[in-house]
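Quick one, tokens below. Sequence please?
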């Protein structure tokens, strides 16, 4: 693929990087990423993936922009209050980079649509805020053989890892670490527990970097490592995580072979903010 003059200028700081270069930038322009949730993590994900020139960005979110979102969901603004988050995000992306095609999915991720949605993209970035969606995304990505970069934030803390158990030995899935969703109410949501807005920016930016590394095939994959960020003590911990042979999804005797276990009751709690 050849670049026009404006693309050479737009992507000059990428092209000059030996690890990216022209071929890497062309790869990004030919790549696609599905972002689950256009909220706190989804905002930096979408803004930086768009600026980086990832050619096709899918956004799944059925929510509308509300005033309490704007403390951290920086892709949206006052003018977007009350409008669909996918439409607000699409407008912001169009204003940043006309090279990027945006595909809006104004719906919740469900057991019924997850396989089709996930399969239509190269890499999936989970920016959802609830366990039901996180497990659904993990299972769908494994079954569709898609790499998943997953982050989560709460209060002053964040965590991040990459999951590609389909790639073979040594790669855990999310269920290898967190077997099942915790009982409802055990872990507070951001609405209940609060979140320092900038944490969404920190973790979402790290998550975007890992997505770009996976698309480009450069550096060390975060698969097998869980990053735990404690903002109050300003520390990062890298925890090694291994595949679990007894994992019900990617283990030796899997009991999860499709998405039917993600039933309607789980779906009802899948609101993405
Ligand atoms: Zn597993």
């Amino acid at each position: 693929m050849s670049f026009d003059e404006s693309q050479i200028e737009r992507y000059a700081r990428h092209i000059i990087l030996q690890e990216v270069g022209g071929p890497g930038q062309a790869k990004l322009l030919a790549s696609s990423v599905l972002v689950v949730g256009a909220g706190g993590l989804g905002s930096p994900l979408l803004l930086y993936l768009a600026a980086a020139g990832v050619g096709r960005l899918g956004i799944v979110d059925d929510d509308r922009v509300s005033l309490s979102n704007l403390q951290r969901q920086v892709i949206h603004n006052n003018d977007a209050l009350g409008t669909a988050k996918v439409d607000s995000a699409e407008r912001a992306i169009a204003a940043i980079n006309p090279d990027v095609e945006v595909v809006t999915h104004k719906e919740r991720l469900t057991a019924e649509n997850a396989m089709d949605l996930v399969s239509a993209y190269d890499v999936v970035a989970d920016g959802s805020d609830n366990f039901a969606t996180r497990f659904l995304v993990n299972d769908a990505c494994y079954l569709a053989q898609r790499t998943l970069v997953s982050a989560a934030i709460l209060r002053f803390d964040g965590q991040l890892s990459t999951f590609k158990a389909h790639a073979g030995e040594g790669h855990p899935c999310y269920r290898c670490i967190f077997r099942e969703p915790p009982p409802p109410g055990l872990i507070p949501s951001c609405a209940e527990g609060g979140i320092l807005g900038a944490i969404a920016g920190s973790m979402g930016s790290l998550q975007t970097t890992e997505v770009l590394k996976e698309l480009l095939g450069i550096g060390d994959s975060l698969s097998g490592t869980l990053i735990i960020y404690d903002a109050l003590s300003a520390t990062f911990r890298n925890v090694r995580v291994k595949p679990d042979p007894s994992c019900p999804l990617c283990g030796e005797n899997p009991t999860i072979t499709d998405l039917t276990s993600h039933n309607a009751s789980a779906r009802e709690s899948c609101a993405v903010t």
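The chain has one domain: 18-240. Residues 165, 172-173, 175-176, 244, 247, 249-250 surround zinc ion (CB under 6 Å).
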